[in-house]
Amino acid sequence: MANEFPQALTIAGSDSDGSAGMEADLTTFFTLGVHGMCVLTAAVAGNSYGIDASQSMPTAFVAQQFKTLAADFHIRASKTGMLADSELIRTVAANVKDGQFGPLVLDPVIITKHGAMLLEESAYETLREELIPLATVITPNFFEAQKLAEMEIKTDDDTVTAAHKLQDLGAKNVLLKGAHHDGDQKEVRDYALLEDGTSFWLSAPYVATDRINGTGDTLSSAITAEMAKGESIADAFRLAKQYTYEAIADPIAVGHKFGPINHWAPKIQH
């Protein structure tokens, strides 16, 4: 029967070196046994040294991609990546708000893992007001969580408070990624807060490597893939955390500088 196989959607930009963005999402979907589809929002010319050029897609074309996919497929979960401006964010919000692309995993690409702002303030406000309330899951990094919660995070209690503030913005379930910018740390601890009030910590050893391009994309797309297969959100968080850790811990030699993680390393079997 048509559309029995689990399908997931990434709404993201294309990274020409394959280490992050849409390419990381689709690779994750594939290795986790889910058919991946995409709505292309932008494209970048980049390699392991950095990005040299970028091009956003016209919003009419973005909207048509949603319409075309909806006419044929049964997408069971979707996720967002980098959304460059307010107009694009509004276009995405308008097309996912009725739930026809399944529950939404929002990877709020606002600030880099090193703390640099990626969005202009107007686009940030649009994402905060129009897209976060539609999110079934939100997966901010440490710096993004501080920005969204409008507070510093220094302790476990701060992390818990910030996660509740993200729920107050409308996101139903939160996976707040722990800081991993301190080379002396021994572990990376993420905090999960579910819609029903249940919460738990997820921990994995810290891996000192510069092969971490696409880490956030991979974590959020692994959550999306597991949800598309019918896993609970709590189990999707746990499985995605382990998958991402194993992909970081067993690096591959691709590129000269900041390389990709290894999506083939995880041994999770379903």
UniProtKB/TrEMBL annotation:
Residues 15-262 form the Pyridoxamine kinase/Phosphomethylpyrimidine kinase domain. One of its GO terms (molecular function) is hydroxymethylpyrimidine kinase activity. It catalyses: 4-amino-2-methyl-5-(phosphooxymethyl)pyrimidine + ATP = 4-amino-2-methyl-5-(diphosphooxymethyl)pyrimidine + ADP; 4-amino-5-hydroxymethyl-2-methylpyrimidine + ATP = 4-amino-2-methyl-5-(phosphooxymethyl)pyrimidine + ADP + H(+). This is Hydroxymethylpyrimidine/phosphomethylpyrimidine kinase. It comes from Schleiferilactobacillus perolens DSM 12744. One of its GO terms (cellular component) is cytosol. Keywords: ATP-binding, Kinase, Nucleotide-binding, Thiamine biosynthesis, Transferase. GO terms for biological process: thiamine biosynthetic process.
